[in-house]
């Protein structure tokens, strides 16, 4: 007669009795064994950081880990809706207030482009640069710096 552990391990091939611990502290279970607050679970994977990153990239990735986990825990619709509203305000308001609305969109898009840059192909990089240039020109025009 097989015990529970034998039947469980035989049904799951290549499984081990040890559980792997995520490499990044934000992906680990909080002390005390309590589960994370309600929201989406963290994505699978061992690393939030680019392997072998040094200098500025490493510092930005380390500083961005907590905000990325926070954004991931929000409902999926909040960030896109907020960005679209700010962009619509930036496009509709022809003075400095429109430029002010474009700045958070520019900052967010630039930050995400920087974070995802190593994994992007040439086409995706060109689109991100074009979007950044558009937002810089929009903000500059709204602040009266050009045109």
UniProtKB/TrEMBL annotation:
Pfam families: DUF6703. The chain crosses the membrane at residues 77-93, 100-120, 126-145. It comes from the Bacteria. Keywords: Membrane, Transmembrane, Transmembrane helix. Residues 29-42 have a biased composition (Low complexity). Residues 1-51 are annotated as: Disordered. This is Uncharacterized protein. It comes from Sphaerisporangium krabiense.
């Amino acid at each position: 007669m097989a015990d529970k552990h034998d039947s469980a391990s035989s049904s799951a091939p290549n499984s081990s009795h040890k559980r792997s611990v995520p490499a990044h502290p934000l992906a680990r279970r909080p002390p005390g064994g309590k589960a994370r607050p309600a929201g989406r679970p963290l994505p699978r994977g061992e690393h939030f950081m680019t392997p072998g990153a040094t200098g500025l990239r490493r510092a930005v990735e380390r500083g961005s880990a907590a905000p990325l986990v926070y954004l991931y825990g929000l409902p999926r619709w909040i960030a896109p809706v907020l960005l679209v509203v700010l962009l619509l305000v930036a496009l509709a308001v022809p003075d400095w207030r429109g430029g002010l609305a474009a700045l958070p969109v520019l900052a967010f898009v630039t930050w995400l482009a920087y974070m995802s840059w190593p994994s992007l192909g040439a086409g995706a990089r060109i689109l991100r640069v074009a979007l950044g240039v558009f937002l810089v020109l929009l903000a500059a025009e709204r602040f009266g710096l050009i045109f």
